[in-house]
Amino acid sequence: MSDDRERGFVEGVRRFFWLPREVPRGPAPALPLARVGIFNVAAGAGIAALGWGDQVVLIMLGSVFAMVDDMIEGVRHRWPGFVVGLAAAWGADRLVRAGTSAPADPDWADYPAFATASLVALVAFAAITRLPGRQGAALG
User: What's residue 1's pLDDT?
Assistant: First the structure.
């Protein structure tokens, strides 16, 4: 492997974790995140209606991919937003599972918790990326 390729890979990894100071950092766009949330809920309902109850976890996977995509683009407060989004999703999942009884149809058992967790993760991520940045400091 040549030096240029190695340097390119290393720079790509470094850029993923630490953006250069000159890179503009805006908030995560709300409309694409809302579209992902609506699609996740609709797709999860379809999966549960078809009887593929074990596959409902794909609802949450769509939200995680949407957050990672915005992280790669370099939004403001991307790492705190990602961590808070996942933590809020986990908390919402636990609360919904504790507060709801199991439905008669086992295919729908996980749907309310995963749908709520997916939407809460996207909302928390978008909210954290909208917090104002510190002046003169590089936030990643």
Answer: 46
User: Which whole-number Å values give the CA distances from 22 to 12, 25, 31, 90, 130, in the listed order?
Assistant: 16, 9, 26, 34, 19
Let me know: does 86 contact 129? Beta carbons within 8 Å: no
DSSP line for the chain: --HHHHHHHHHHHHHHHS--TTS---PPPHHHHHHHHHHHHHHHHHHHHTT-GGGGGHHHHHHHHHHHHHHHHT-TTHHHHHHHHHHHHHHHHHHHHHHSPPPSSGGGSSHHHHHHHHHHHHHHHHHHHTSPPPTT----
68 is written with which tokens? 């990672």
Pairwise CA distance, residues 136 & 101, whole Å: 50
pTM: 0.79
Q: Kindly report, residue by residue over 91-106, the tens digit of the pLDDT.
A: 999 999 888 877 777 6
